[in-house]
Records
---
Amino acid sequence: MPQPPGLNAAEQRLWAAFPTGATVVLGDDRPAGPLPERMVRAEIITRLLLGAGDTRPGAVAAVRLRGAYILGRLDVSGGSVEHELLLDACRFVEEPDFSNAETRQLRFNDCRIPGFDGGGLRADGFLSMSGSEIDGEIRLFRAQLSGGLRLNGTTITAPGPERRALSSGGLVVDVGTFIRNATITGGVRFVGARMNGGLFMEGTTLVNPGRLALDAQNMVVEDTAEFSNGFSALGTVRLRSARFNGILSFSRGRLDSGDPARMALHASHMQADELLLWTDGQIKGRVSLSYSRIALIMDHPSVWPDELYLNGMTYETLRGGEFKDRLSWVSRDREFHLQPYEQLASWYHGIGHDDLARKVQLAKLRARRRHLNPVGKAWNHLLDWTVGYGYRPWLAFAWFAALLATGTTVFSIEEPRPVKPANELPAFHALIYTLDLLIPLDTFGQQLSYDAVSWSRWVAYALVTTGWVLATALIAGATRVLRPASNPN
C-alpha cells in the first residue's frame, strides 16, 4: 500500500520502516516541546497498528519509534493489533487508549504520558512503561497481560488527591509484575488481581498519606510478593483476604500509614506460606493480621507497632524474638482476646516447650484479669498467688508448708487446752494439730480434742480459714488446667 498523502518527514520515515520493523530514531532524548522534525501524529501510528501499512514476507512488521513528539490520541480501543508497538523516549500530548483491544507486545519506555487507558486490554506479550513519567492515571481494569507488566523506574503521579495513580480490578498478569524502583504518588489498586508470576516492588515508593497507598484485597500472587529492599509505603497497605502461594516479604522495607490512628498494614483474613515482616525500623501505624493463616512468620520485636491485632490468626512456625518478646507480641491488642494466647501456647507445646506454654497460659489469665470486675479481680489475684491458676501447684504446697511451720511454732509455745479428760484424748502434738486445722477434714482427731486459748485462738481461726481457701483455690486451679482446651484454630 503506498504512503498516504500529507505525511511529514518523520511520518514518512515511520511508514517506510514499518514493513521490516526497523526503529526510526528522531532523537536520542525525550523532546521537551513540539519540534517540527520530531512530530508524529497519533493517527498515523494507529493506522499502522490496525493494518493500514504493507507487510513484507520474511520480516516482522512493527512500529518502533524513538524520540517522537506524538500529537493527538493514539486510539485502538476495541481493535485487534497484530503488530508490536515499541516507543522509546517519546512524548504524548494525549492519553493513549487501548481499552478492550487485543494486542501484541506494548512498550512505552522512558516516555512522558498523560495517563493510559488499558481497561479490558488483552496483550499477547508484556506491557512495559519502565522509566516513563505518567502524569495521570493508568487504568487496567480487567486487563490480561500474558507477558507480564513492567513499570521499573516509572514515575506515576495521580491527577488529584482523590484519584488513583494506578487502577485495576480483575487484572491478570502472567510471567510477573515488576514495579521496581518506581515512585507512585496516589493510590495503587490491585483488588482481585491475579499475579501468576509474582509481584516485585523492591525499591518502590508509594505515597498516599492518610489514604490507601496500596489496595490489594483478594489479590492472588503465585510465587513471591516482594515489598522489600527499599520498598516504602506512606499510607495504608491493604492486603485483606489476599492469598500468597509463596513468600510475602517486607524485609528491609518501610511501612508508615501517615496517621497513627490508621492501619499501616491491613492483612486480616490473609493466607501466606511465609511472611517476612522484618522492616527497616518500627512500623508506624497499626497492623492487623486477624484471622489470617500463615505457615511461617519471621519478624522481630524492633519492628512491631504499638497496636497489633492477632485475634484469630493461626501459624505453624515462628522465627525471631525471645519468649518475653512473644508475650509482648500477643498483648498489643487494646482489646483482650483469648485466641492469640491459646495459639502461642499451642505452638510452644507443639515444639516441646511445655514450661513456656504454661507461662503463656498464666500471662493470658493475668491479662484477662484487667478486664474483670473488682470481685473477679480479687478472686483471680487469689488464684494467682496461691496456685498460679493451677499451672503452679507448688505454690499451694509452699504456702501450706509455711503455715504448717507457723502453726507448729505457735502451738508449741501456747499449747491448747484439752476439751475432755486426758484419758479420753490422744496425746497432743503441735504439728499434727496444725495439720488438722489446715486440712478441711478432721483427719487426725486433734482439732476436736483440743481448743486453742488466748491469742493462739486467732491463729487457729486463721489457719482453718486459710486451709479452706487453699483447698478451694487448688481445686479451682486443677479444674481449670484439667478442663479440655479449646482448639485455637
---
Amino acid sequence: MTDLSSSFSLTTLLLEVDEQGIALCTFNRPEVRNALNETMVGEVRRVLDALAARDDVRALIFTGAGGEAFVSGADIAELRERGRTEALRRINNSLFRAIEQFPAPTIAAIRGWALGGGCELAMACDLRVAGEGARLGQPEVRLGIIPGAGATYRLPRLVGPGKARELIFTGRLVDAPEALSIGLVNRVVPDDEVVEAARTLAAEIARNSPLAVRFAKTALNAAAEMSTDAALALETTLQAVLFEDEEKYRRMTAFLERKKSKK
C-alpha cells in the first residue's frame, strides 16, 4: 500500500493505492463528521484527475475517517452563506458528476452518517457498501433547500420514483437494512468490516480485464442518457474494440485450456 497523501499535499483527504491498483480515498475531517467544504471539493477533484491518468488504477474506494460518518453533508456554515451565484456554480454537483464519470469503478464504503451531499456523493459512485449502523438520506427540505447535487436525478433511478419522492419530500433518513431493501446500497456488513468488504469487492473487479470493465462502465453510464438504439450501437462498438484486444485472446485461450484440462 502506497500512501500518496503527502505527494498531493492533501489536508482534508488521505489517499492510498495498493499493489492491485485499488485506490482508497478517505475523507479526513472527523471533527466535523467529514463535512464537505470547498477545500475538500478541490482536493477530490485533484485526486480524480491524477488517478484517472493512471492505467494501473482498477477501482477507487471512498470512505470517511473517524467511524462516525462517511460524509455528513455539505458544510452548513459554508452553505448558509452561499447565494444564488454559488448555487449556479454547481460546486458539489459537478464534482459528483466527475466521480460518476471516473473511468474505473467507484465504491462508497459507508460507515455512520451519509446525509445530503454525503448521500449524493455515495449515489454518484457505482457501488455502495454500508455498515450496519449507517444512516442515509436527503434531509435538505428541513433546512429550507432541496437536494442540489444530483439526488433528484440519481435517487429515483436507484430506488424508484415513488420511494425517492417520499424520502426527498419528508427528509426521512433510512437505516442500513432499509437502504439495502430499497436498492440504495448493494451490501450491508458489520461496521468495522466496511472498508475491508469494499476492498474485497474492488479486488473481485480488479481481477477482470481492466479495459472490459472500463468499457462496461462507459456503456452503463451512457445508456442512462441515450435512446435504446444509440445505447445498443455504443455497446456493439465497444464490444467490437474488445474483440480485437490481445487480452481477450489471452483470457479466452486460458479459459479453453482450463476447460480442456478438466476433461
